[in-house]
Amino acid sequence: MLAPSLVGGAWVGLLVTADALRAGAEAPLAPFTPAGQGVAAAVAGLGAGLLYLLRDRFDLFQGRAV
């Protein structure tokens, strides 16, 4: 429960910081631009790939699931 809370808090902090750095500019925040969405997709893909590769390390049941 702690890890998701920390990640969520980091995202909120990042968005607040990015909004403060814009200082009233009319441009959208970086995470909501096409480039930002591409980076988010790459990070999500990397996370999914690593989870797939390392899935057996986190499996408490060492047998085969159905």
Please write the string of helix (H) and strand (E) elements: HH
Assess the beta-strand content as a share of residues. under 5%
Total DSSP helices: 2
The largest sheet, given as strand count, sense and whether it forms a barrel, is:
none
Please tell me the overall pLDDT: 77
Q: Unreliable segments (pLDDT under 50, ≥5 consecutive)?
A: none
| Helix-residue proportion | 55-70%
Q: What is the terminal-to-terminal distance?
A: 28 Å
Global shape: elongated
Number of strands: 0
Characterization of the model:
This protein is mainly α and 66 residues long. It is built from two helices and no strands. The chain has helices spanning 2-22, 34-53. The model has no long low-confidence stretch (mean pLDDT 77).
What order do the helices and strands come in, and which of them pair?
Elements lengths: L1 H21 L11 H20 L13
Would you summarize the structure shown here?
The chain has 66 residues and is mainly α. It is 62% helix and 0% strand.
Name its key features.
66 residues, mainly alpha, 2 helices, 62% helix, elongated
